[in-house]
């Protein structure tokens, strides 16, 4: 379980995350939604120790982030940021094998390679595994990075806009993989996502943020609601039921 | 990959052998110690420059930077100038090379430490900001040096100018022992950080995600870089382009991301470039030029090539 208590972060005098408290249950997908500049990515970065916090505490399985050794934390929680620009010459397989660093410190054992192969298979990258990263399309690259995070085999997986640059087919593919990870392997996934329909269809909980504050958090059905979304996005969003899911129509 | 390293090592050995044994004419007692010391200095400098540039480029995730951008070699020149300016070229610090070396190295390490401490105290400052401040400091040091240089006695300036250009013709052989000890110690200290380099090349976020204590590691690596640059500069003087040249040739030639291979390769390439360059200086130009001229020329041409290629 991840617990965030009264977390704040400010740049200059402006609070980008302001007194945020929330709990993320094990074995669920939680989506952070909200307009640009709401502090979603900042929040995610702080939970994963990429950014320092100005106030508050973060507990992962009752341990305070910052007091645990970074390497131990890397076996528990992993994060993938949206900008992954690398200009070193790396094959997909090499990249994925980096995910095993917390366990192997660079000297991969047979067991490590099993995890690497599994991650590659999970993301359907077998055909591409010997290709260099600079020869891949945006979507393929994104899948390779997610495979790296999978190889890291952490209980908690944090993804910052994992669907960036992806077409519909690959977006759905990735969301399905995430769902499968939660349902089959019991992982806990937190994503920052812009497409509220993906959030609505695939997540268990949603945290809606605006101006660094939580507007509302709760089960998906409670958040995908015209009133709540109006408050978050300042837009009239019409919600329709499609099978058992709620679909937001916001194009007009 | 092993084969490529083997080729480099073989080539380096051949050049070294050529350097030591060419035209010896049986005067071994005279030739061996002189050339031996020179070649040792070359290997040490080459190694230090290649090593430090490789590490520096990995930390900054940038392949066209060299540690000299932090202003370290201009600082070295400033220290030398200040000593001559205030105490004269016959003072103890100028004559006793070991004292001079110790002072220069400690000031340079102090400077990089300060630079780092001052910048990383506040959050959100990145390596690029460090570089920017480094460039400004470097320019400042350079201007200070040239200001003092115009004020001092021309004879004193003559003494100083020997230090301004890299040259193996006047290697500070007195420093060799001290440098070897320092270099050895650094390599030993560096060993436990080797494994982090591959991960660091993925960038800060990925490195932190994979459990690297980023600030701790980068700070120590920067100090390693500072010491290595100090050794190289104190031994033969500033060679700006060598690091850039060898690091990029190593990347192009070895085409791998593994730093254990890249660093070994770049050290070998560096030795090849320096020994080869020195051979040209001695045999072709018969000492009418210095190696830094040749290295800077080749390096400059290569740099332009890199820029043109990058544009496409």
Your description of this structure?
The complex is a heterodimer of chains A (about 250) and B (about 300). Chain A has ten helices and twelve strands. With about 250 residues, chain A is α/β, with parallel strands linked by helices. Chain A folds into two domains: about 170 residues, Rossmann fold (3-Layer(aba) Sandwich), CATH 3.40.50.300; about 70 residues, no CATH class. In chain A, the strands form three sheets. Chain A has a six-stranded mixed β-sheet, sandwiched between helices. In chain A, strands 2-1-4-5 form a four-stranded antiparallel β-sheet, with helices on one face. Chain A has a two-stranded antiparallel sheet with strand order 11-12. In chain A, helix 3 runs parallel beside helix 6. The longest helix of chain A is centred in the last third of the chain and has 18 residues. The radius of gyration of chain A is 18 Å and the shape is globular. The mean pLDDT of chain A is about 85. Chain B has about 300 residues and is an all-alpha fold. Chain B has one domain: ABC transporter involved in vitamin B12 uptake, BtuC (Orthogonal Bundle), CATH 1.10.3470.10. Chain B has 14 helices and no strands. In chain B, helix 2 runs parallel beside helix 8, helix 2 packs antiparallel against helix 11 and helix 3 runs antiparallel to helix 7. Chains A and B meet through helix 2 and strand 6 of A and helix 9 and helix 10 of B.
